[in-house]
């Protein structure tokens, strides 16, 4: 294994990367605190808190739908499917989260 080929970044690149990550983090902090009551940010926070559930639900939907209709769709219809899958996944994850909370209260 030739490790110098793999670890080829110099100190300048590492510094630039760290500065970019710091700028990105600070920017998102100010954006999220400024618009935290916005419905888009509320939805993104919900998705972030339940990302594993979204992943499972989306791939169950996509996997089952794609095997049946993937080859029959035109590229313009893919956008429609994106919207439908996202909306359906959101609805199913929202229901799952509510059911999970009610199950935890019973136990």
Structural description of this entry:
The structure is a single chain. With about 110 residues, the chain is an all-alpha fold. The protein contains 5 helices and no strands. The chain folds into 2 domains: about 1-35; about 35-105. It is about 85% helix and about 0% strand. The protein starts with a helix and ends with a helix.
Q: Care to give the gist of this entry?
A:
Helices cover 84% and strands 0% of the residues. It has 107 residues and is an all-alpha fold.
Report the strand count: 0
- The helix-and-strand class reads mainly alpha
From the N-terminal CA to the C-terminal CA, the straight-line distance is: 54 Å
The string of secondary-structure elements, in order, is HHHHH
Q: Share of helix among residues?
A: over 70%
DSSP strand content = under 5%
Radius of gyration: 21 Å
- Give the uncertain stretches in residue-range form: none
Structurally, the number of domains stands at 2
How many helices? The count is 5
Basic shape: extended
- Biggest sheet statistics: none
């Amino acid at each position: 294994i030739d490790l110098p080929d793999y670890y080829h970044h110099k100190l300048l690149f590492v510094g630039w990367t760290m500065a970019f990550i710091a700028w990105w983090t600070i920017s998102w902090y100010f954006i999220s605190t400024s618009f935290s009551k916005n419905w888009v940010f509320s939805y993104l926070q919900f998705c972030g808190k339940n990302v594993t559930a979204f992943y499972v639900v989306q791939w169950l939907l996509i996997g089952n739908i794609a095997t049946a209709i993937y080859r029959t769709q035109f590229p313009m219809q893919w956008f429609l499917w994106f919207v439908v899958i996202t909306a359906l996944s959101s609805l199913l994850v929202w229901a799952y989260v509510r059911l999970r909370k009610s199950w935890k209260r019973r136990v």
